[in-house]
Amino acid sequence: MNNKSPEVLLSEEEIQARVLELAAKISADYEDADDLVMVGVLKGSFIFLADLSRRLSIPRTIEFIAVSSYGNGSVSSGAVRLVMDVRGNIEGKHVLIVEDIVDTGHTLKYLIGMMKSHRPASVKTAALVRKAESAEVDVTIDYLGFDIGDEWVVGYGLDFAEQNRTLPYIGFIKPTDA
Ligand code: PRP
């Protein structure tokens, strides 16, 4: 890994403004719903989940789930493996799955099915970014931050080989720069 900073794709200000908009929409949509559970998908969603959840004006609880699909490579294998399930009981609750990025869509599709097997009251999805060109499966994102191109993006939770997750902005790198 060299010391070159990733180029800015989405600035900290753009991200924070969009997170605020999404939080307002989620707060309005779930105003009358009891038991909203935000399920963050580790590891990448941890910063988006933290910011989004703190900007909601409605009660919510937090769970985490861990899956593995990429390893340390840069190409999705399409195979999703459950590493850690939610700890609490989500039966009868309103589940909002929170992802940092949707690329091929395999992970989110798998997670929606997984969550439904717990018999929740509803399942919806939030993702900060989507690589629309990379979609291999049709999956609904109810609350989407940004559509982006096919760049390899890092920061705001996203990594390349575990590097750059804690950048406050989303940047892009060429794997040859990493
Ligand atoms: C990323 C991301 C999603 C998944 C999306 O996770 O956080 O979970 O890939 O890809 P897909 O739409 O092609 O399925 P990753 O496997 O990189 O793990 P991480 O969150 O721990 O970085």
Description:
This protein has 178 residues and is an alpha/beta fold. Helices cover 21% and strands 31% of the residues. The strands form 2 sheets. Strands 4-3-2-5-6-7 form a 6-stranded mixed sheet, with helices on both faces. A 3-stranded antiparallel sheet has the order 1-9-8. Helix 1 packs across helix 2. The longest helix has 18 residues, at 12-29.
Using the CA coordinates, give the radius of gyration.
16 Å
Q: How many distinct beta strands? A: 9
Question: What is the percentage of strand-forming residues?
Answer: 25-35%
Count of domains: 1
- Residues in helices, as a percent range: 10-25%
Would you tell me the overall average pLDDT? Answer: 92
How many alpha or pi helices? 3
Q: What's the story with the biggest beta sheet?
A: 6 strands, mixed
Mass-distribution shape: globular
**Strands of the biggest beta sheet: in what spatial order?**
4-3-2-5-6-7
User: What class do helices, strands and sheet pairing give?
Assistant: alpha/beta
Helix/strand order:
EHEHEEEHEEEE
CATH class: Alpha Beta
User: Which residue ranges are poorly predicted, with pLDDT under 50 across at least 5 consecutive positions?
Assistant: none
**Would you identify the CATH architecture?**
3-Layer(aba) Sandwich
What molecules are bound to this protein?
A: 1-O-pyrophosphono-5-O-phosphono-alpha-D-ribofuranose
